[in-house]
């Protein structure tokens, strides 16, 4: 029988990495087969990580994985979501616009399904520096809370956020408090997605909405880039969800999906650009060097990107409503 702990020994990893075996997050089975080997292509850090496919339910997940304490070094200040404000010279306005556009896309998506006003209580799980929450607070007066396991986060106005530091499912958050809980690219990083879904149900008010965006394994960009697909992002991504497993995971927790979207707020172009970069040039993306080709490529591809919501390029989002 395939043994993940034996298999990982064949890969190239420093001796300080101690791995733990994981059962399938969806069905609990230990019967799995090799799927692919992934690396931290974004920052270029060392390590080769194993993704397996569950033989009983087909979920793809990282197995074995680094324990929670061991994963922290992969979320240092180089990690893209945690980057602070920076001067990009002549391209600064373009870069800032791309960052605020991401928050505006999240806002558009949420607003379609939820009322946003001064009474709205919103919790963003995996909020990083909190720009999305601050945007909603500024525009609608929403009451904003965020949770992130990263310590020492800072940003202008970060203190306006009711912030919880640590693992989501270990937080002491009041029950039935929130109208909306969002998870933008949090769920695929989660060490216990089952506990997190239960926690989300607990902190939401009756009728409250849970919005989750994750990369989509059965998307075009995965077919193009395979192990160099930016959605692999090892070792941070603990599971890679296709549509079927993603929906089954929610069903397992009795969450009713109001809407399934074959796209997200995250720009599909980022996966096209970085996937090509990892495949052709290699791992370790130096933002300083690629920022110009990045925006040039985006401009050239804009006629295609206009239809990105219909092309199943890279992301998926669900909107769930609590009874
Ligand atoms: Zn399974």
In short:
This protein has helices at residues 4-7, 68-71, 92-113, 131-140, 193-203, 220-225, 243-252, 268-280, 287-300, 302-305, and strands spanning 32-38, 49-54, 60-62, 121-125, 143-148, 162-165, 178-184, 204-215, 239-240, 256-261, 315-321. It is an alpha/beta fold and 323 residues long. It has a domain at 80-221 and 247-321: Vaccinia Virus protein VP39 (Rossmann fold, 3-Layer(aba) Sandwich), CATH 3.40.50.
Description of the structure:
- By secondary structure, this protein is of the alpha/beta class.
- The chain has a domain at 80-221 and 247-321: Rossmann fold.
- It is 30% helix and 20% strand.
- Helix 4 links the parallel strand 4 and strand 5.
- Helix 3 packs across helix 4 (131-140).
- The longest helix is centred in the N-terminal third of the chain and has 22 residues, at 92-113.
- It is globular.
- Zinc ion binds next to loops.
- Zinc ion (ZN) is lined by residues 24, 26-27, 29, 54, 56-57, 59.
